[in-house]
Amino acid sequence: MKKYIITAVLSIFSVLSLSAQSQSNPQVSKLYQDYIFIKTALTTDDADKTSKAAAEFVKTAAAIDPKVISSTHLSALKKNAGTISGTKSIDTQREAFLNLSKDMIALTKQFKLSGKPVFVMYCPMADGSWLSNEKQVVNPYYGSKMLSCGSIKSEIK
After folding, report:
1. Averaged over 65-77, what is the pLDDT?
2. In the prediction, which pLDDT does 4 show?
3. pLDDT digits over 129-139, tens only?
4. ∠ CA(26), CA(28), CA(34), 5° rounding?
């Protein structure tokens, strides 16, 4: 009987530990939504729309409590999104999106970003990954030039 109780207690601690790693936070979820708007704007080759989406991302990141996401990580997110919002060059925006995506993918290890599965996509031509809500590849790094270039690297539930 003791064995079963100990096993049950350990199972509960394992579940609690796992749920702590997959914590959900409305501010971080909003940040992810803003990131998706940036990605979508890049897929349409619209530098102005991308810039506006990135400015919204910076506002959201600035409102996040540093106790939720470390100030170092927040600074990196704001810096890359700031680069995107501060230029009308789609090529410069896409270069900064590479780094922004790396930082956002790192957040997926700490937070549940969405109620749905999140897909980590990969483009071999850009040697870069990005996050997506859908399985269909819609490449933000090349837009209309190579919209379907890439593949699903992993799925985060």
Report:
1. 91
2. 43
3. 999 999 999 99
4. 105
Exposed / middle / buried, residue 80 (Cβ in 10 Å: 0-12, 13-18, 19+): buried
Torsion angles phi and psi, residue 37, rounded to 5: -65, -40
Question: How open is the CA angle 102-85-87, to the nearest 5 degrees?
Answer: 105
Give the bridge partners for 130, in sequence order.
121
Q: How many residues does the chain have?
A: 157
Which residue type does 135 have? Answer: K
State the Cα–Cα distance between residues 76 and 148, nearest whole angstrom: 29
Q: pTM (2 decimals)?
A: 0.83
In this prediction, residue 111 carries a pLDDT of: 87
**What are the start-end ranges of the E strands in the chain?**
23-24, 111-112, 118-123, 128-132, 151-156
Alpha-carbon distance of 128 to 109, in angstroms, equals 18
